[in-house]
Q: What sequence folds into this?
């Protein structure tokens, strides 16, 4: 049996998380949302060591800013995974709203 590197199969993990996110689009479940957030945290941890220096610096700055904002709020620790998922849908909803003028 071949000794394969773990990173060669990361696309399977990413595909699984993407499919979970697609399922969440049609079946809004808070537990599924939390699981997707936990997987997003795992993906950040896995990819951080392989990232270029610029992205590491940006990641540290943005995660530090998020940590400062989180510590200054009164949110519970259980809300942290929800901060790591779902924000890109804001961009899609903006694009969808801007396309309304072209619809019949």
A:
């Amino acid at each position: 049996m071949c000794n394969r590197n773990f990173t060669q199969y990361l696309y399977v993990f990413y595909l699984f998380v993407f499919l979970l996110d697609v399922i969440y689009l049609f079946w809004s479940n808070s537990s599924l949302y939390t699981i997707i957030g936990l997987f997003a945290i795992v993906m950040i941890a896995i990819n951080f060591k392989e990232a270029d220096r610029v992205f590491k610096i940006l990641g540290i700055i943005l995660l530090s800013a998020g940590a400062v904002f989180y510590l200054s709020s009164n949110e519970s620790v259980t809300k942290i995974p929800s901060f790591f998922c779902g924000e890109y849908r804001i961009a899609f909803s903006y694009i969808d709203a801007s396309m309304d003028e072209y619809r019949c």
